[in-house]
Amino acid sequence: MTTEPFVVLAALLFSIGALGVLVRRNAIVVFMCVELMLNAGNLALVSFARQHGNLDGQVAAFFVMVVAAAEVVIGLAIIVTIFRTRRSASVDDASLLKY
Amino acid sequence: MIAFWILAPIMVAAAVGMVLVRKAVHSALLLAIVMISLAILYAVLEAPFLFAVQIIVYTGAVLMLFLFVLMLVGVDASDSLVETIRGQRVLAFVAAVLLGVILVLGAAQAIVGPPEGLTAANLEGNVPGLASLLFSSYVLAFEVTSALLITAVLGAMVLAHQERLSPKPTQRDLALQRVRDYADSGKHPGPLPSPGVFARHNANDTPALLPDGSVADSSVSRVLQARGTVREAPRIRRTPGLPDDGSESAPTTGNDATTSGEGKP
Questions:
Q1: Across the strands, what pairs with B209?
Q2: Would you call B121 helix, strand, or coil by DSSP?
Q3: What local confidence, expressed as pLDDT, does residue B165 receive?
Q4: Which stretches of chain A drop beneath a pLDDT of 70?
Q5: Which residues of chain B have pLDDT under 70?
Q6: Looking at the partner chain, which of B96, B149, B155 has a beta carbon nearest the beta carbon of A19?
Q7: How confident is the model at residue B256, as a pLDDT?
């Protein structure tokens, strides 16, 4: 059981997530795609941990999960706050900081 | 490896579907499929601790949070299909394909030789192995993690908190308001009539009947009326022998409330 298929799968999932971030405009869906990218990174970390025969990759994946959980909490709170004031969850509408 | 070849197509299909479907709730459910499959792959990759954490933290907590926020923001909020930047989709697709090709090529070149496997590292068990790493070489990062989590908690509290701008109405205020409404517009101060309760049928979507057999509109929730899922009230069968003056008992309860609710002063 080689490592390559796992890493290729991780790369595919990462690019699909990136595509979603670029294409979708609902902020929550964009967020889900970011989560997908983080998970793909985790998969690569875990498979490389097995490739190299030590647990450092798994520790890194664990830290990624912690950071992702914190990020989801803050990001969703921001989305809810924006929705409350602007009645929209689209990333195109929150463009006031540009000006 | 069998698990991988079964799960990998499912994961890729679910991920593609997540990008393509219009409704955000469907995206969330497809993401759940990806995450659970990923947890199984962790188990295959000799990471039982991450398998459990993936299920508990991601599918358990993070996805539930996503679904909660979706319910708050509105389930029907789906993306508009209008492109704001011309050619954005095509360019994004090309960029994603290129990124995937680069990642696959780079990752394939990074792997040399057969995997060493984690049997030696997992000799004392996966969790003790992870713990000894976490509390020795990664102890600083672990401590910083606690600061990160506390910051996240505080940030979420600050962002989600809403100042109350007006004082909370007391029971007395509500009662006075009800009486004032009655004086101004004739709105019935009591509760709304309950929906129809019949011998065969007892449901919220069936309106109550007034004593003359007509339908009391206020007895059914406005949400159901807007959705158009209100049932027809069962017809009162009029026996030919009886006079047609509505004196027969309409099979409803709450008639008193209904009549007083509809009657203007």
A1: B215
A2: coil
A3: 87
A4: 98-99
A5: 75-81, 196-202, 233-265
A6: B96
A7: 42
3-state helix, strand, coil in chain B (%, to 5): 55, 0, 40
d(CA B95, CA B226): 44
Tell whether A28 lies on the interface with B, counting CB pairs under 8 A.
Answer: yes
- List, in sequence order, every beta strand (DSSP E) within chain B: 208-209, 215-216
- Single-letter amino acid code for the residue at B151: T
The string of DSSP letters for A35-75 reads HHHHHHHHHHHHHHHHHHTSSHHHHHHHHHHHHHHHHHHHH
Nearest-angstrom CA–CA distance, A39 and B58: 9
Beta bridge partners of B208: B216
Number of C-alpha atoms within 13 angstroms, CB side, residue A47? 28
Give yes or no for A86 touching B (CB within 8 A): no
Q: Which residues of A touch B23 (CB under 8 A)?
A: none
DSSP tag of A55? S
Residue B224 CB burial class (10 angstroms; 0-12, 13-18, ≥19):
middle
Could you tell me the two tokens for B126? 């996966």
CA closest to B143 among chain A residues: A63
pTM of the model: 0.75
Q: Do A67 and B155 touch (CB under 8 A)?
A: no
Count contacts between A and B (CB, < 8 Å): 237
User: Which one-letter amino acid corresponds to residue B65?
Assistant: L
**Distance (Å, rounded) from C-alpha A47 to C-alpha B118?**
10
Report DSSP letters for B75-88, one per residue: TT-------SSTTH
Q: What is the predicted pLDDT for the residue at B76?
A: 61
